[in-house]
Amino acid sequence: MLDTIDSHILRRLAQNSRISYTDLAKEVGLSGVAVKERIERLVNQGIIEQFSIVISAEKLGKKISAYLELEVEPKHLDKIVAALKENERVAVLYEMTGACILHTHILVESIEEMEHFMNESIYSLEGLLRVENQILLKRHKNQDGLNI
Q: Is Aminoacyl-tRNA synthetase set as a keyword in this record (predicted)?
């Protein structure tokens, strides 16, 4: 179980994974060494899986953010997952509950690039049963992980 200090550390790391041990230590009333040891323990326990950054896809020219729900034949699932994992336009790929559904988030520069991606990388997949496509209009909140 997490104590209140571990919970505070996780919340702050989720907000800013670059926060220093010293600054965290001041917030929780421990030494920097104690905070470092707690973070290492959380990593070793698998509670913290990775430290990451959030990159603005739009500022890198990826103006279109789209979400695809792909229903696939179960016998083709592994092959389709492997193909999509290798595609640089696929930012997120989750297998969901239901009738063999893959949730896919893609980032592209234009509608034309999206059309090309759909024709070349999606519609050509063997075993694809259904595709739903939604383009993101505006992001109001983006949070990975749990509220602690």
A: no
Q: Which two tokens stand for residue 4?
A: 């209140």
Alpha carbon 87 to its chain's center: 15
Please enumerate in sequence order all residues whose Cβ is within 8 A of that of 130, keeping only pairs 6 or more positions apart, or say none: 69, 70, 71
Alpha carbons 112 and 110: distance in angstroms, whole number: 5
105: nearest Cα among 65, 75, 140 = 65
Is there a contact between 86 and 132 (Cβ–Cβ < 8 Å)? no
Q: The whole model's pTM is what?
A: 0.74
74 and 108 Cβ atoms separated by less than 8 Å: no
pLDDT at position 147 is 63
| Residues of the chain scoring pLDDT < 50 | none
For residues 81 and 72, is the Cβ–Cβ distance under 8 A?
A: no
Please name the CATH architecture into which domain 58-135 falls.
Answer: 2-Layer Sandwich (3.30)
The CATH number of domain 4-44 is 1.10.10.10? yes
The per-residue pLDDT for range 70-89, each reduced to its tens digit, is 999 999 999 999 999 999 99
